[in-house]
Amino acid sequence: MASYDLVVIGTGPGGYVCAIRAAQLGMKVAVVEKNPTLGGTCLNVGCMPSKALLYASELLEEAGHSFAKMGIGIAQPKLDLPTMMKFKQEGIDGNVKGVEFLMKKNKIDVLAGTGRVLGAGRVEVKAADGKTTVAETRSIVIATGSDVARLKGIEIDEKRIVSSTGALSLDRVPDKLVVVGAGVIGLELGSVWRRLGAKVTVVEFLDRILPGMDGEIVKQFQRILEKQGVAFKLGAKVTGVDTSGKTLKVQVEAAAGGNAETLEADVVLVAIGRVPFTDGLGLKEAGIALDARGRIQTDHHFATSVAGIYAIGDVIAGPMLAHKAEDEGVAVAEILAGQAGHVNYDVIPGVVYTTPEVASVGRTEEDLKDANIAYTVGKFPFTANGRSKVNQTTEGMVKILADASTDRVLGVHIIGREAGEMIHEAAVLMEFGGSAEDLARTCHAHPTRSEAIKEAAMGVAKRSIHM
Ligand code: FAD
Ligand code: NAI
């Protein structure tokens, strides 16, 4: 029986990063993975393949729509979907191999199979051929991630009714795509297929898109997406999909009931959220407690209800984001090594990788109102930013929310190209408890889009220069 300091179940960004940090700290580590490849949802069917398709489809659209105005004459670009999918797969393979390399480099054993917790200190690994082995270990970290949330009565076949996984691998562009859920997946993958030629309709239960993000920013985002050709049915729910004919018949009604209508679709993408994945882990038998939403319950040190067993990432509470899982992986490894591992949940950026991008860190205006916190707002539109003007990419704005009495930055929200890269100066500032004044007095290179952040920070004190 192999014996370890730490066995991590799951090799997504939470699990593999935790394993590496623990190995760096001198622990003997193994990871257990049931999939043929390492890297979890993020690398195989999540962050990375979606970003490859977003990138490729964006360039196709740029080539078709923006090149001519810059004096670049090319024939109308044509989509070669199999090659685009090959491009996506090469990206996945490269990253997955990278994780394999990192496991070897850090002398981490990879135990292929499904892990089951037999209690503190023991993990059973069942290989694909049914053979089982048991690993002994001082500590266990569960990092088994999440799975697609399903809609009652609507069966996902990953061909015509797809989850994000199927939507990343369609073999032809649907004429009509109905997306259920205006969250991050719906808007990112809806954008991909719209750019490739599908007519996209998004059906959202709430009366707004992207719940949780700043309301003013997402209103502007919705208008931009509509201009791009995405149709929205807000305050509406899908009650069924008739699959009997060649074309799918999607039944939609008002969220509160009534006002039924039928939409036609070639493909329906169900993107209504994700649920923690704990199947087959033996949690009940091991006495590991779950919360009301089926997530593994942990304390602020990631400890479960059973001593020696920890959990991180999508399988516990908090935003289902790869970087949140990674940071928790580092923190729990450091805690196991006797250090003060910690994650600051107030400063976790979130990015929607569409064009334009939407990026956000900290509190929204709605949050601050609900919490009765007095705040000041500084805003700056990209229409007034020189670099955006010369590139003719002026959509969007920066919005900074600062504490009215201390000027401490509480939230930053950006809609615009490259917003996902720009947000990090705000995150660093907020980690250091910085003020809008600090940001406003930090010299920003000219001409950059980031100058819009400095201008918005100056706007908090009503002293923006270029507006
Ligand atoms: P996962 O990545 O889900 O990994 C869990 C691993 O555990 C899997 O490999 C699974 O096979 C394995 N496993 C499960 N049970 C067992 C078992 N019993 N034994 C052995 N192995 C097991 N997040 C971002 O931050 N940015 C993005 O751009 C982004 N894009 C996304 C796009 C899509 C389409 C999707 C679906 C998600 C996206 N996410 C994104 C979310 C991100 O993928 C997750 O937050 C992240 O993968 C969670 O990491 P994790 O380590 O907790 O779990
Ligand atoms: P989500 O939680 O972001 O959005 C789901 C949307 O579906 C919500 O707007 C919700 O109101 C709506 N909805 C729920 N039930 C519905 C129903 N019956 N009918 C119509 N609408 C309904 O979930 P999503 O988009 O599936 O993504 C899952 C997770 O993956 C998210 O937590 C997200 O953080 C992560 N992710 C992150 C990305 C990123 O960081 N760029 C990209 C993709 C996913």
Describe the protein's architecture and organization.
- The protein is of the alpha/beta class and 467 residues long.
- The protein folds into 3 domains: 208 residues, FAD/NAD(P)-binding domain; 112 residues, 3-Layer(bba) Sandwich (FAD/NAD(P)-binding domain); 111 residues, 2-Layer Sandwich (Enolase-like, domain 1).
- Helices cover 32% and strands 25% of the residues.
- The chain is built from 14 helices and 22 strands.
- Strands 1, 2, 3, 4, 5, 6 and 17 form a 7-stranded mixed beta sheet that branches. It has a 5-stranded parallel beta sheet with strand order 8-15-9-10-11. Strands 18-19-22-21-20 form a 5-stranded antiparallel beta sheet, with helices on both faces.
- Strand 10, helix 7 and strand 11 form a beta-alpha-beta unit.
- Helix 1 runs parallel beside helix 9.
- It starts with a strand and ends in a 7-residue tail after the last helix.
- The mean pLDDT is 97.
- Bound molecules: flavin-adenine dinucleotide and 1,4-dihydronicotinamide adenine dinucleotide.
- The site of 1,4-dihydronicotinamide adenine dinucleotide (NAI) has 27 residues, from helix 6, strand 10, strand 12 and strand 18.
- Flavin-adenine dinucleotide binds next to helix 1, strand 2, helix 2, helix 3 and strand 4.
